Amino acid sequence: MLSLGGTMAALGHTVAPDEIVKNSFANYAFENYEIAAYTSLRTLAELAGVNQAADLLGRSLDEEVAMAEWVEVQIVPLTQKFAALSASEEAAKK
């Protein structure tokens, strides 16, 4: 279901001229959604005393945090590259 949501967001951006930038926003939001989900699931596993599941969910949470941090760092250079390419396309049209 989570994957479907991400796919639908990406499809919605295909008609936008800044699709790549908007997809990076959706990726960042999706990663943070997964962080919240894994945090909640890990908490429930801990409350239930299912330590093995809590440990595995903690590892998945760490991976999602790392990915969200990576996506966040990429937004500025991606936006800069998009702006530069858009400007060069506009200059080429003149």
Strand and helix layout:
Layout: H1 2-13, H2 19-48, H3 51-93
Helix pairs in contact: 1-2, 2-3
Q: What does the model show?
A:
The protein has helices spanning 2-13, 19-48, 51-93. It is mainly alpha-helical. The protein has one domain. 6% of the residues are buried.
How would you classify the helix and strand content by structural class?
Answer: mainly alpha
The overall pLDDT average reads 86
Share of helical residues: over 70%
- Helix-strand pattern: HHH
In DSSP terms (H or I, runs of 4 or more residues), the helix count works out at: 3
Q: How many domains make up the 3D coordinates?
A: 1
Major sheet: none
Specify the overall morphology.
rod-shaped
Question: Could you tell me the strand content as a percent range?
Answer: under 5%
What is the number of beta strands?
Answer: 0
The end-to-end span amounts to: 46 Å
Summed up, what is this model?
The protein is built from 3 helices and no strands.
What key attributes describe this structure?
mainly alpha, 3 helices
